[in-house]
Amino acid sequence: MSEQVHASAITTKSDRVFNIVNAVLLAILGIITFFPLYYVFVVSFSDPSSYISSEFKLLPVKWSLASYKYLMSTDAFIRSIGNSAFLAIIGTALSLFVTSCLSYAISRKRLQGRKIMMLMILLTTLFNPGIIPPYLLVRDLHLINSTWSLILPVLTSGWYVLLMKGFFDSIPASLEESARIDGCNDISVWYRIILPLSLPSLAAFGLFYAVAYWNTFFTALLYINDFTKQPLQVLLQNMLIDASTAAGGGAAAEMMSEQRIPPETLKMAAVVIATVPILLVYPFLQKHFAKGAMVGSVKE
Amino acid sequence: MVMKKKAIGAVASTLLVSAMLSACGGNSSSPAGGSGAADSGKPTEISIMTMYYTPEPPGPDNVVVKEIEKRTNTKLKITWVSPNNYGDKINVTLASGDIPDLILLDDPFTAQVRGLVAQGAFWELTPMLKDYPNLMQYPKESWENTKQADGKTYGIPRARPTDGGGFPYLRKDWLDALHLDIPKTTDELYTVLKAFVEKDPDGNGKNDTIGYIGFVDQNGMSYMGQLQNSFTKVNGDWKLVDGKLVNVNVLPEVKEALTWMNRAYQEKLIPEDIAVLKNTQAKDLLKANRGGGFQDTAEAAWEPTEELRKTNPKADFVPLVSLNGYSNKDSGFFGMYAIPKSVPEAKVKQLLKFMDYGATQEGYDLASFGLMDVHYTEKDGIKTPTEQAKKDIVAQQAFGQIFLKYDQYLRAYRSGMPNDVLERNKKIIDEKAKISAGDPAIGLNSDTNQKVGTELKKKIQDMKTKVIMGKEPLSAWDSYVTKLKADPDLIKITEEMNAAYQKRNSAK
Amino acid sequence: MGASRLKQMWSGIARDKFLYVLALPGLLYFLIFKYVPMWGIVISFQNYSPYQGVLGSPWVGFEHFQRFFANPDFYTLFRNTMAINVLSLVFFFPLPILLSLMLNEVRTMVYKKIIQSIVYLPHFLSWVIIVGITFLLFSTGDGAINQLLVALGFAKFDFLTNKNFFWGMLTAQSIWKDAGWGTIIFLASMASIDPQLYEAGKMDGAGRFRQMWHITLPGIRPVIIILLILRIGHIMDVGFEQVFLMMNGAVSEVADVFDTYVYRLGVKQGQFSYSTAVGLFKSVVGLLLVIGANKLAKKFGEDGVY
Prior knowledge:
The structure holds three protein chains of three kinds. Chain A contains 14 helices and no strands. By secondary structure, chain A is mainly α. The two termini of chain A are 23 Å apart. Chain B is built from 19 helices and twelve strands. The longest helix of chain B is centred in the C-terminal third of the chain and has 23 residues, at 447-469. At the A-C interface, helix 1, helix 2, helix 4, helix 5 and helix 6 of A face helix 1, helix 2, helix 6, helix 7 and helix 8 of C.
């Protein structure tokens, strides 16, 4: 007994060295990663006329909220945030539910036909028919211009189903069996054992889906015609149209003359606006990525 | 759960069937309302698809939209599409068969559009146009250059001026400070740029000036384009030599251009980052007093000037009239509005009438500027938008994309520009119009070009970029040209272009 | 014989009916939204026009594939695509694993949270921004790095227009952008490892490294394997936006990949059928690779992707 306590209480010298080296390396990585973000942040608060995009400076020549004010000045701005939030919340909830259910099911070795299902799911990640067939389908389902056209066609990602299966694989069948022996029915097993053990993966994939829905852009351009339903990214990108990435051919020269190129500060402010809300979500999920967070809870 | 299963099952099977059916064809489109008579009685319903460049597109209750509906007795259903991925939107629209009455095709000569014309997707407008005097006011070039391969007109062009388009402009105050005249030839220009770089014209004691902020991309010579054209004397890739079209890249003129540019690159008269520089950075350099010249429309020269004048009232960017006697004559259009065949003939006439109204001064002013004293104030013939215009989304970048009265000085004015600059620009445009040379190959079609043209162009440009930067010696360009001349694709393209050229000429 | 098999099957389905119910919504989704539109792939064998639709467009058999393989650039595209992806597999793939192992070992929660939050942030920046920052740092004219080099007495270096650097820069950018984000899935996986295993390990005298090697790594191995197989299957896919933004005339021979090629032809020239054919080629190669990788994984006793 005392030996056990002893073993876990001692931090050996090698432990300490390990900790320090680890921490230092991570610090370096942190700085390298942080710097460009800092830059984006700083540029977004720079005064547009005095900011020179080809010159590199650590602090703004002149601080200004002009870019933010401009981007937030349209009535559409708040509305589009609402639209994106709806997608991020409802879409994520639905996607996570469908994905985890399917993923769990195919992770159970006893399920007949699971190999075919997995193969079928895998194929969807490899083969892509382009934008026209999905568009025609969405149209035939009368979903054009509906917010659901931004959720249903992208409801489940084959990658995530297959990856999540890996997580479910590590929940041994024996746990389920002993629960069943104790008298639990299927739903109860699902609720009392499976779900609690999967919280880390649910948190991870929930985050992935949330980010994807929040950043909805291309599907909205194609399927939504009513501007009031457009998500945030569409609005922001509209304000940032850059001629150099637009049309080709004969139209290019004329396009160059038609566009007003937006200042870099505006682009950066758009990035910050689009990113901050999602950043606020992560801390709440972080605890699920802690070591051994959930395992203990099921041992009874 | 069970209910859901059943419902989904039913839906799924219907879907499979209907999806198969809808895959069948694109042109089973919806008839776009409206009978024949529109003047008296029911307003004509018109659906339009077009681009917008304002942060938000006008809504259906937009002030200007409503006013136009009133005056033309129409009910408008406008689908405003972001210029981001406009091409994709067109493609899905065409595929779905729900094509609006008036659809903006941003490039009338893509393989896609040509194919559609050949498949009979659009109305041929040539016989009908004579009844619409205001539309006919558009310059000859706008109509000529939008004719398709068969010499017929399939759309209403968005007319743009032929002169005043992107061309080099220079710092006049620096020229004055260094006692130099406005250069008229590329040799003189070289001397000027060298002086800009070496003689510290902005007097800040630093050798940080770039003579001319040109740059290229992989599609073409881009912002170095007109400099090249000053050697080839033609505003495009094809030149008439002894009555036949030849691709400029095999001509010695291009080699001259590349030699000039290579020297300029080595002496740092043009940016070291010529291959990667982007538009915003170039403009910022100009605003930061570090550039002596750039290529842009006459009115765009005002943008950096305005900025610089905040600290240096003498700063002045002046557009050049010509170099080597050459000025660029542009195509005269930026996209065109086509009418799909699904629209009944009687309605086509009404659509034309609608667009004809847009070509009048009244229609155009309403569309681009809105209501007088509400959305703009007018002084000395210059209209200045008010704050209300922004709130109501009234701008040339919105409805002004649909209605247009031709203005040859469109490229002369930008709001905020003082009168003297405007007058100078107008004069420059007039001078240019006298000598400008266009692109003899606009609108000509070559099937091989459609298939491999972009790739070929990219390869040629990649080679040019390398030669300019000195990554490949000029001798390499010579061998490349020899190869090009023997390239079977280019030979075929040249043949086809010439055949199309002859055909169009004889069709006149 | 057949009857009893069938009976076995049905009783199995009855027994597992809850599982089938769970699987149903997802499977329906895939059938409706993924498989129904798959008809679009047949246009690889046509000269498709959206206006004429699938039934109205002419058939051309394997013409597009022949054109694609006969294209003298095919080899270049293939080489570039493979080079960029192999570099990514070798250099990028292990990093999130390494990083998550390091993060997992941090004892101070606060420090861990801070570093974690920082390293995953670049994922949110679009490629437009990242390439923009790359230019800012590495451009020849005003780039910060070159300014530094000059100040230190060295000559300027053309990072962005030098073809020997292109692939390296792409890899470095990917690492910077997504290594942190990639740790999320591994950290989640590590969270599921039974802490008693660590206790037992410590009792046996295992130091930190050995614990990592014998407990943590094996614990996340299933996820690593699945991810690896999926990545191998997508080896023909290179991030279009990143390459598109970084490519320029000076590095053209190393920069062009399948996706940029398809973009030029498909989007810009409306050559739907040709671009879909190229896409189909990529998908088939990817499929073969996945099957191969999956078989290999199974040989090593792992649970594959299917």
